[in-house]
Amino acid sequence: MRETERTYKVSRFLEITEFIFRYRILRFNMSDEDESLLTENKAHEQIREELKHMSFENLQKLKEKLGTKVYNETLFGKKNKKKAEKIKFRRENKNRPREMSAKKPIPIKYEEMTRVKKVVSRDPRFDSLCGTFNEKAFKNSYAFINKLRENDLKTLQKELKETTDLKAIKKIKYLIQRLENQLREERKKKEKEEKKWLEKKELMESVKRGEKPAFKKKSEKKVLDLVSQYEELKNTGKLKKHIQRLRKKNKHKDRTKLRVEETE
After folding, report:
1. How far apart are CA 207 and CA 205, in angstroms?
2. pLDDT tens, position by position, 211-252
3. Domain ranges for the chain
4. Handedness of CA 55, 57, 60, 65 (dihedral sign)
């Protein structure tokens, strides 16, 4: 009994495979109408039913023998693939903008592209387009500023004598000191420039006379500066104050030196 069942299953398996091969050949040679008639055939339906009841092992063997595509078409039927219809974008009115697909990138011409220019900050003091800085010309153009400062200093000194408010006195004193420092620095710069100009003049004259130009050393220049500073302090009556300040400075230096030596 078992042997007869086994032989029946094997024979039926071979019949199914043979039918599938025939079905494949017929489908290849037939039109769509004939193929629809073939699917209506009862024998084809019966085979599909039998395939459903077969064991997984036998189905796997059949799939390997026939191929996945033919096996799936026999068991599940052929899939009707519908072609995606192309959507035609049309304008309802000629004045409206053209409707384009979002999937395709819109071609943009290089000339039509609007690029935002990078804002570059420009300082006219350090820009070569605004010309080079000429200190001499600048001082000649703005020479009136020192005169204004001198006038402001005089008015502030008058206000200091007249005012009694402590806050106002403190503020005026601060402004007077600032103006005095500014004027003093300008005076020093002017004196340095005059000295340089005199040195150049002396060198030019010595060259004209046929002599060898004698350039001053830094140490000599330093001594001359100290002499001129001493004379200036003596004339203004600030020499004693300056000496006292220097002594205090030197004392502080000596103390710091001693502390460092003690720690070592």
Report:
1. 5
2. 887 788 888 888 888 888 888 888 888 888 888 888 888 888
3. 2-76, 143-214, 216-263
4. negative
